[in-house]
Automatic annotation (TrEMBL):
Keywords: Coiled coil, DNA-binding. The lineage of its organism: Bacteria, Bacillati, Bacillota, Clostridia, Halanaerobiales. Residues 42-77 form a coiled coil. One of its GO terms (molecular function) is DNA binding. This is DNA-binding GntR family transcriptional regulator.
Length: 227
């Protein structure tokens, strides 16, 4: 479902939650309505742009301070000790959206892109993060070069509302593309693939794939594993 398929009321609420720093007039222009109607909808939905802005600022302060709990997070660790993760260069390309018609645009003019970042250790590529999502058409390599994390791509969509769904993990033989990208350490070229859906306000706005050399990492789950 694209943004254009939502009602004006739903579009107004989405714009407010995704980017609380938009002016009332900006939201009205994006939705093709009047500022008065935008104020009415936000009031009926009990949404305050000021409160959303304050919450956004608090959450960003917590993220920058590293105040987050890892107790409920699965962790990828290298089998070899005393090795450090490094983030490689980021690449981007525009792709056809016919295969990903379940993904939602948050703005009508956005185009579908695939963004890839290699994960390295001692200059060897052991992993590869891939995100498929709609972005503004003015995205460029210079902007990507200044990212600390691919998740920063969602900053103008409301990064604090980003959630994930259906993390599916499987081990499989590497296809030719993965064989050419990853520096495998074992006799078999096996990859561990983790795929999950990226959500904003319960709307599927992207797909994230992680690929790792299955011979070089271990996956640690917190708590109980139900089989």
């Amino acid at each position: 479902m694209g943004l254009e398929e939502l009602t004006k009321k739903e579009q107004i609420i989405n714009f407010a939650r995704h980017d609380p720093f938009l002016k009332i007039s900006d939201i009205a222009e994006n939705v093709d309505t009047t500022p008065r109607y935008v104020r009415t909808i936000l009031s009926e939905a009990n949404i305050s742009l000021m409160e959303l802005r304050e919450k956004y600022a608090r959450n960003m302060e917590q993220r920058l301070a590293g105040e987050r709990s890892d107790l409920q997070q699965a962790t990828i660790r290298l089998l070899e000790k005393d090795k450090d993760f490094e983030a490689g260069e980021i690449s981007i390309k525009q792709i056809d959206d016919l295969e990903f018609n379940d993904l939602v645009r948050t703005k009508p003019q956005e185009k579908l892109y695939k963004i890839i970042q290699e994960k390295l250790v001692d200059n060897h590529v052991y992993g590869w993060q891939e995100i498929i999502t709609y972005l503004s058409s003015d995205i460029n390599q210079e902007r990507l070069n200044h990212l600390n994390s691919l998740y920063e791509l969602f900053g103008d969509k409301g990064i604090n509302n980003v959630k994930f769904r259906n993390n599916i993990i499987q081990v499989e033989e590497a296809n030719p593309i993965l064989e050419s990208r990853l520096d495998f350490t074992g006799e078999q070229n096996l990859v561990m693939k983790s795929q999950r859906i990226i959500l904003i306000d319960k709307l599927p706005i992207g797909i994230e794939n992680h690929y790792f050399d299955a011979n070089s990492i271990k996956l640690i789950f917190p708590g109980e594993l139900v089989v």
